[in-house]
Amino acid sequence: MQLTPDQTTVFTLWGLGINETVVNTWIVMAMLTVASMLVTRKLRPDVPPNRWRTTLEVIVTGIQRQIEDISPQSSRHILYFSGTLFLFIALSNLLLVVPGFTPPTSSLSTTAALALSVLIAVPLFGITRQGIGGYLKTYIQPSIVMLPFNIISEFSRGISLAIRLYGNVMSGAVIAGILLGVAPFFFPVVMDVLGLLTGLIQAYIFAILATVYISSATATVKKPKPDHDLDRERDHKEQDR
């Protein structure tokens, strides 16, 4: 049984073997790009929306609402990143039902690349929001003793993201292979339905975790107000009454 598409070389380019993971990743990226161009080519206020544009608006609005529930800040700067992650992983996993297509997310190299993009994006969002000094200060919160633990926590997030997505997609393929050997006429339909469901759930979990990490890095630490400021505010409120 083949556990990963990395083992299949589709063609050789300039002496470099291009495996099935790379080819299927290009296919998913091309499908998302072409679909986005076709749906948004007449994106004007005077053109009534068709069903594809309505579907895209429902998806984008749903992702934006999920981000707003997590992050109290502006969701637009996170929407592009987390939304792209969700659409790529979801479409990759949904194409599991296509005969002969192996989702690129069942390769550890793909999930590691996605996790690495989150690891790079988190400090970039944090520095953009708080500046370099403000972001680096978050590593010594609540005290400088926590510096090594916060650094380890940062890297463990990426490792857990990659292993979780790869493990769930790969284990689903293994279980499907075992059940197909037991009852080849019944389990394909059941496993296809479960594969679609778990694929969407895994895409949702990955995008939500990425959003949580970015929101945590961009959250501004509020300093406690001095006692005399609190007394002054209390006096003003009593005078207003």
Return Rg in Å.
23 Å
Mean pLDDT: 78
The 3D shape can be described as globular
Question: Which structural class should the secondary elements be placed in?
Answer: mainly alpha
**Looking across the biggest beta sheet, what order are the strands in?**
1-2
Largest sheet: 2 strands, antiparallel
Outline the secondary-structure elements.
Elements lengths: L8 E5 L2 E4 H21 L10 H20 L5 H19 L13 H30 L9 H36 L4 H32 L8 H14 L1
Antiparallel strand pairs: 1-2
Helix pairs in contact: 1-3, 2-3, 3-6, 4-5, 4-6, 5-6
Overview of this protein structure:
The chain crosses the membrane at residues 78-101, 107-127, 165-187, 193-215. This protein is mostly helical. The mean pLDDT is 78. It contains 7 helices and 2 strands; from the N terminus they run ββααααααα. It has a domain at 76-97 and 108-220. Helices cover 71% and strands 4% of the residues. Helix 1 (20-40) packs across helix 3, helix 3 (76-94) runs antiparallel to helix 6 and helix 5 packs antiparallel against helix 6 (187-218). It has a two-stranded antiparallel ribbon with strand order 1-2. Strand 1 and strand 2 form a beta hairpin.
Structural features:
mainly alpha, 4% strand, single chain, 71% helix, 241 residues
What's the short version?
With 241 residues, the protein is mainly alpha-helical. The protein has seven helices and two strands, in the order ββααααααα.
